[in-house]
Amino acid sequence: MIDGPQPGCRLAAGPWWLLFSGPIGPSEPHSHHAAQIVVHGGVPCVAVDSEPRRGPIVVVPSDVPHAVLDHRDHALVLFVSPDSVVGKRLAADGIDRGGSLDGAHPVAHLLGALRMSNWSQADEAVRRTLEHLDVADVEHGSTWRHHRSLDEALLELPDDIDIDDVDSVRLADDIGLPAGRITETLTDGLGIPLDGYVRWLRIVTAIESLVDGDDLRAAAAAARFPGAHDLSHACTSMFGLGPTALAQSGNWLSAP
Question: Going by fewer Cβ within 10 Å, which terminus of the chain is more open, N or C?
Fold first, then answer.
């Protein structure tokens, strides 16, 4: 589906989203756990459950087979965690039944904005896309910042961790951030429950490690996966692509 790596391809990740901007091409039917929003133009380009869907935006549900039917020189592919506020809103609204927006106004302004060169522009592109779909409170994620020390601590937590199980005061002492800031970040700044964030964070951390030049085994260790196979399985299950393929699909834009 993603035709990377090519000049101009960009990848960026937030607490519950992964954004690709660049060319897309024909693919075999496949599915993955992340919901997917494809901005590509008007004529049919994406098939959902074997049914071609018109644009300009097509929403692909979590775990539903889909395929790209044709090449597009420039498109947006937005992967959304089904555990997130946005993912749940998509499901609740029924948009994720393979719907498309045939009657929506043109999205040339969206496609233009997606030729981003930094993470903030990627975040803005995500916000604009969600506004266009009218499926989420766009404030979720807009205040998020990549706290490296906090993320390192969260990577040590089990996948099924709940916010009520985290001692914010002790965590603050360990990493040198104010307890109030940690609580605000974990409860208001993510747009996804803590356990879902930890799972998402592991995959994103591993991809960043690969981008930095680590091999698959080292990337798995950096993200606290038991081994390279576990990392590959988690990434492919979530995005339909392995971690190495994602890392090589475009220029990775690091969060602030």
Answer: C
Contacts of 155 by beta carbon, 8 Å cutoff, 6+ apart: 198, 201, 202, 205, 223, 224
DSSP 3-state of 51: strand
Ramachandran region, residue 2 (left: φ > 0; alpha: ψ -120 to 50; beta: rest): beta
Summarize pLDDT for 160-185 with one digit per residue, the tens: 777 777 777 787 778 777 777 777 77
Q: Is 28 exposed, middle or buried (0-12, 13-18, 19+ CB in 10 A)?
A: exposed
Convert the pLDDT of each residue in 207-232 to its tens digit. 999 999 999 999 999 999 999 999 99
Residues 6+ apart with CB under 8 A from 64: 31, 48, 49, 96, 98
Token duo for residue 248: 């090589």
pTM: 0.89
Which neighbouring-strand residues pair with 46? 53, 68
Report the candidate in 146, 160, 61, 116 with the shortest Cα–Cα distance to residue 250: 116
For residue 49, count other CB atoms closer than 10 A to its CB: 15
Question: What are the tokens at 135?
Answer: 């499926």
182 touches 168 (CB < 8 A): yes
Which element (helix H / strand E) includes 168? Answer: helix 168-175
d(CA 174, CA 149): 9
